[in-house]
Each structure stands twice: as structure tokens, then as C-alpha cells.
Design brief:
heterodimer, A: alpha/beta, Rossmann fold, 7-stranded mixed beta sheet, 6-stranded parallel beta sheet, 16 helices, 19 strands, B: alpha+beta, Dna Ligase, domain 1, D-amino Acid Aminotransferase, Chain A, domain 1, 2 domains, 6-stranded antiparallel beta sheet, 30% strand, globular
Chain lengths: 461, 204
């Protein structure tokens, strides 16, 4: 069992060298440079290119050894056969970390070449990520080693969700999708073949990273199973980890073997371990988002009693169905005090019971009055606020009022809004302010259930 | 390698897991004597056939001299193709819920312990819970809670406590005995006044 590798030089580098930078705008090395410039990285940036030619008006070095500065991160994007030599030079130049973007290693059977670079990384203690990986994005330090142009793949805002993916393809699509969500990104780490830095090091770093509130992982196989178990036990005591494991079926598993040269061990054993150590298991990409969103903003609930407030009767009933069929959640009973207080402020057409149907003409004031009463009811642990923006009373004032109410809310409060453009506009507005919005009763129930399950795990283990 | 039934029983005894009273019998008279006034089960044990019930190697509910002799002869006949074999006699267990407690070794993580509703259900509904050994009491309770059939399995509070303890003991057994590769306690009959491990299969 080796000590965990520190990823700080990679994620918070004061100096970066891009090795294999190119004049050709279609080349990976060029796109990485362009992304660094677009992101506005403010550290010291150096370019290395064998020819030593000037690129985008910037000076280049023929070798990393020519750079006098101490380099925290080297981004290596050159053909695989040259990587050992360049990494050796990085070692001699005392480079602290490296992202090897280049493919052509174990994933195509070149195990010996991969072992060679691992040995070099170990020898010089270079925190090496990859090879065959997308690398890292940290919107706070503005590090972005992705070779995917920003006009094709949007980069998320700053936030508390860290995303870890072995696969570059799954990683990049999810990164793209996160940028369309209201919650922001803390770190993105795509670690490819995991020749040196692996999921154990990454979990260890993110566990102690104060900028990370939620960890989301996409895993194909685990390299060091025993060490993984040890870190898994520790990390979930500190923060939630949401995991999507590929290879659920035998066919999926066989495909994973040839994909990232990873052993997608038996899915059931993995799932058992995730469960045992309190991970939240997602069954597909959309579930990752349901969970990431709720954990990014919501406090731990005291229990599973849910109040539903709605401006549409039918959606209220569907939501009650979803809550009741979850097995862990239940419909809350309003206290006498709450019921009396609601009777005083609600119009007579509002039936005082859970779900509380505020009627189709409900406006921001009616929501505000209802939520003010229910937020202090001790028989309620969580709130689902259904806001259907198609109704006459619901507009931006409602979204603003819900955001305001959320600020003082001690309990989890989630919004359910179903609809097209007008609704989406308000969804983004609310989510950017830290109020999670869902678009189906089933997904909101799943999210609340996961929130409750994790809080129970933390209390019991 | 399949561990001898009584060697397996001894291993369970060491961990305080009680299994039903059993005896190897060499003749039908032997079996009749062992039965006394109680109902009997006869089983043929052979490494060549691991699915005893499916292969008709388990004779249940034998209540009189005649049925015991008949069952014994049938097993002997089947045994010809399954050499070497032994015939084991057990007292018949009545009532209760059948569960399965098992263990195996995952090539990456190591020993795992399993709980499921017994009989055909664990296979048919894939309703089981799995954990890495060693487990805590809380892990064992979580396993029970994870079963879709938990309401069948834990029909009373006592049953929950008994299954929890059985799981913790089995997990300890698996964890401490590196040479045991697979283990099946199938079925374990859980009743309101106790439990019985009815069949033991341990592979080294």
C-alpha cells in the first residue's frame, strides 16, 4: 500500500508547460493551448515544441529542460513512443505533476510502454494522470487540459460538484451536460488508463478538498480493490459519493475490458461494496444528475416525512404517488398549529391537507404564506414545491420568492416544474441560486430518497 | 474440494452456528434407528452432484420404517453413478422460513457474504444482499433491509436478531478461514423459537 499521491500541483498549478503544442489548430496540442488562453489561466504558461517555433505569438522551448522556472504541471500530448523520453526529462526538470493525454498504451495492448512510463513517474515522484485521458478542469484555478474546444463542449460554472470519470467520452458528455445545469463544478478529473494516479488517489484528494461538496464518479473497474475499500469507508463519512458503474451486464463488462483495459470485476461485488460504504448508486447518467443536484445544495433531512405544495392538483397527486411508493418516504401530517395558521391565510377554496393545493391562481404571495407556515412545522422533514409556470399566477416573481424562501430554509426544499421554454428559463434562474429543480415526480422522489438514505447511513455507521 | 459434511459442521460449531443433528448411515436399519420416533430426511452427498434437490438426492418427510427403507434403496441406486458418495440422515425440520446464507471469494475484493430468501426464490427473483467481509451488526441489518422479501424473512423481531447474528458469525468464519472458497448454508430454517442450518456445503 503506497501513500496517496497529492494532486494539488495538478489542480492548482502556479506554472504549466504544454508539451507537444502545435501551430495546426486541429491538433490536440493546439486546442489545449487555446483552452488555457480561453479559460484565462493566470499562472505562468510555457510551451514546448520540438521545432521551437513561435505559436500564437508565444515563445516555445525545445525541451522542458530549457525552462528555468519550476513547473507544477506538464500537459503531455505527443505520440506514445516519445512519452517515456519526455517524461524522463520532466523528472529531471523536477516537474511535480503530469497529465499524459496521449493514447496508444495499455488500451491497445501496449502494456510494456505503459509500465515504462509508470516506472519513470514513480522514480521521479511525478503525479502522473493518464495516459489516454482527458485530464483535468478546475474552474477556480482555470486549469483546463481538455483537448475538446469550448465551442463544442461548454465548461460549467464554479460550484461544489467534483466529477471523476475513467472514460473520456462519458466524462466529456457529462461535463457538457453539467454546464447546462444550475449547480457548478469543483473539479473534473478524467484519469484514463490509471497507470499511476488512480481512483484511490483521486478520492483521497477530493475527500480533503474543501471546494468539493459532492463527488460523482463514473467507474469501469477498480485497480487497487483493498485500498479502494479503505478510502471508501473514510470518504463517505465526510461527503456524499455518487457512483455509476459500467459493466452491469456480462456484455457491458466484456466491452469495458477492451475499452480502457480495466477489469470491470463482477458488478454485484462492486455494487455490494458501494452500498456497504454508503455510496449513492446511480443506474444511468440521468440519475447522476438527479443526485448530484440534490446533494450540491440540500441540508441533511431529519426524516422522510414530505410535504407537497402545488398549484396543480393532478401533478400534486402524481407526486404523492411517487413519494408514497418510494418505501422510505412518507406523506407528512400537518400539525394542528400549521393547519390553523394556514386556514387563517389561505383563501377558502384551498383545502388544508397534504398535498396542499394552492389552486391554479396561486401567486408568489400565496406560496410565501404557505411555505412560511410549513417550514416551521416539526412534523415535516422535506418540502416539494410544485411550481407550474403555465398557470396565470406563476411568473418570475414566484421564482424570485422561492429563491428568497430557500435562503432561510433549514429543511431540504426541492422544486418540481414541468414545461418548455418559459419553465426552463425559471429553472435556470432558481438552480443558479441553489434551488434544485426537477422535471418529474419520479426523479424528485429518487433524489429525496437518496438524500435520506445517505443521512441515515452517516448516523448509523 | 468439497469439505466433508461433518468437518463442515465442526467449523460451524466453532463459530457458534448451530446445524441440525445429522449422522452418516451405512444401512437402512441404521437410518431407522437414528430416526427413533421422529420424521427423517435422507440425503445423498457426492462431489459429482452439487444440486441435491434437483437431482432427487433428498428424501423428505420419511415417517415410518417402510418409507425409510424404500428411500434408502432409491438413494443407493442413484449412488452407483455418483461414486464416491455418503448417505446422511437428519431429523426433519418443520415450519419456519427458509433462508440462504452463503459466501464466496471475489477475485478483487475478497470474501463476500450473501443473504437471500431460501429455496428457488434467491435464483428466480435475484433477491439477495451481498457484503464484503467482515461485516458489522449494522451491515447485517442493512442486508436484511435490502431484501425485497424482508417482510417474509423477518416476520418477527426475533427472526431479525437471529439472522443478524448468523450473518455476523458467518462473515467472521469466512474472513478468518482463508482456505474456504465457497460456503452455502442452504437452507437455514428460521423459526420463532430458533433456527436450524439444514444443509452445509463448504468448498476449499
Amino acid at each position: 500500500m503506497r501513500d496517496p499521491i497529492d494532486l494539488k500541483p495538478m489542480l492548482k498549478p502556479k506554472s504549466v508547460a504544454i508539451i507537444g503544442v502545435s501551430r495546426n489548430p486541429d491538433k490536440v496540442g493546439h486546442i489545449i493551448l487555446q483552452n488555457y488562453l480561453n479559460a484565462g489561466y493566470s499562472g505562468r504558461l510555457y510551451l514546448v515544441n520540438k521545432s521551437g517555433e513561435e505559436i500564437l505569438g508565444m515563445e516555445t522551448y525545445k525541451s522542458i529542460l530549457e525552462i528555468k522556472d519550476r513547473i507544477d504541471l506538464a500537459v503531455i500530448s505527443i505520440p506514445a513512443q516519445f512519452v517515456p523520453e519526455v517524461l524522463e526529462e520532466c523528472g529531471k526538470a523536477k516537474v511535480k505533476s503530469a497529465v499524459v493525454v496521449s493514447g496508444g498504451f495499455a488500451e491497445i495492448g501496449e502494456k510494456a510502454l505503459q509500465d515504462e512510463i509508470t516506472t519513470i513517474a514513480e522514480k521521479y515522484k511525478i503525479a502522473m494522470l493518464g495516459p489516454n485521458c482527458l485530464g483535468v478542469v478546475d474552474p477556480r484555478s482555470r486549469v483546463d487540459t481538455l483537448f475538446l474546444p469550448t465551442y463544442k463542449l461548454s465548461r460549467p460554472e464554479i460550484g461544489g460538484v467534483s466529477f471523476v470519470a475513467q472514460s473520456g467520452a462519458v466524462g466529456s458528455t457529462i461535463l457538457d451536460l453539467i454546464s447546462g445545469e444550475g449547480f457548478g463544478l469543483s473539479k473534473f478529473i478524467s484519469y484514463g488508463n490509471a497507470a499511476y494516479v488512480d481512483e484511490v488517489d483521486i478520492l483521497n484528494y477530493l475527500m480533503n478538498d474543501e471546494e468539493t461538496r459532492v463527488i460523482v464518479m463514473y467507474i469501469e473497474g477498480i485497480k487497487r480493490a483493498r485500498e479502494f475499500v479503505e478510502i471508501a469507508k473514510k470518504v463517505t463519512k465526510k461527503k456524499p459519493v455518487i457512483v455509476l458503474k459500467a459493466g452491469k451486464t456480462a456484455e457491458g463488462s466484456a466491452a469495458a475490458h477492451s475499452h480502457t483495459a480495466a477489469l470491470a470485476g463482477s458488478y454485484q461485488a462492486h455494487e455490494a461494496i458501494f452500498r456497504q460504504f454508503g455510496f449513492i448508486i446511480a443506474n444511468d447518467i440521468s440519475e447522476l444528475f438527479f443526485y448530484a443536484k440534490v446533494f450540491a445544495s440540500e441540508p441533511e433531512p431529519n426524516g422522510g416525512r414530505v410535504a407537497v405544495i402545488t398549484n396543480g392538483g393532478g401533478v400534486g397527486v402524481l407526486t404523492v404517488d411517487a413519494v408514497s411508493s418510494s418505501g422510505m418516504l412518507s406523506l407528512a401530517q400537518f400539525s394542528k398549529e400549521s393547519s390553523n395558521a394556514l386556514k387563517k391565510v389561505m383563501p377558502t377554496l384551498v383545502n388544508i391537507r397534504n398535498p396542499l393545493d394552492l389552486a391554479g391562481d396561486a401567486d408568489d404571495k400565496r406560496y410565501s404564506q404557505a411555505l412560511s407556515v410549513l417550514s416551521s412545522d416539526n412534523g415535516i422533514d422535506m418540502l416539494i414545491v410544485i411550481a407550474l409556470f403555465q398557470t396565470p399566477g406563476a411568473d418570475s416573481r414566484l421564482a424570485t420568492e422561492l429563491i428568497r424562501l430557500k435562503e432561510n430554509m433549514q429543511k431540504p426544499m426541492l422544486v418540481l416544474s414541468i414545461g418548455a421554454e418559459f419553465t426552463k428559463m425559471h429553472k435556470i434562474m432558481m438552480e443558479s441560486a441553489g434551488l434544485p429543480v426537477y422535471d418529474s415526480p419520479a426523479s424528485i422522489a429518487l433524489a429525496l430518497e437518496a438524500l435520506l438514505k445517505y443521512s441515515i447511513y452517516k448516523k448509523k455507521h | 474440494m468439497l469439505l466433508d459434511y461433518f468437518e463442515g459442521k465442526k467449523v460451524l460449531d466453532r463459530y457458534g452456528i448451530r446445524s441440525i443433528e445429522s449422522k452418516y448411515v451405512e444401512s437402512s436399519e441404521d437410518a431407522v434407528k437414528f430416526a427413533g420416533e421422529e420424521k427423517l430426511v435422507l440425503k445423498l452427498i457426492s462431489e459429482k452432484q452439487l444440486h441435491k434437490s434437483k437431482a432427487g438426492l433428498v428424501k423428505l418427510d420419511l415417517s415410518d420404517h417402510e418409507s425409510i427403507v424404500k428411500a434408502y434403496k432409491e438413494l443407493e441406486a442413484k449412488g452407483r453413478a455418483l461414486h464416491p458418495y455418503r448417505i446422511i440422515a437428519q431429523k426433519m425440520v418443520r415450519g419456519g422460513v427458509e433462508i440462504i446464507i452463503g459466501g464466496n471469494e471475489d477475485p478483487q475484493f475478497g470474501k463476500m457474504v450473501l443473504l437471500g430468501l431460501g429455496g428457488i426464490y434467491v435464483e428466480a427473483f435475484k433477491d439477495f444482499a451481498l457484503r464484503l467481509c467482515p461485516i458489522t451488526s449494522q451491515d447485517a441489518l442493512d442486508m436484511i433491509d435490502q431484501l425485497k422479501s424482508r417482510k417474509v424473512v423477518t416476520y418477527d423481531g426475533e427472526a431479525t436478531v437471529r439472522i443478524r447474528d448468523l450473518l455476523v458469525r458467518t462473515s467472521k468464519l469466512l474472513y478468518e478461514n482463508r482456505d474456504i472458497k465457497e460456503l452455502d448454508l442452504n437452507p437455514v430454517v428460521v423459526r420463532s423459537d430458533g433456527y436450524d442450518v439444514v444443509d452445509i456445503r463448504i468448498l476449499k
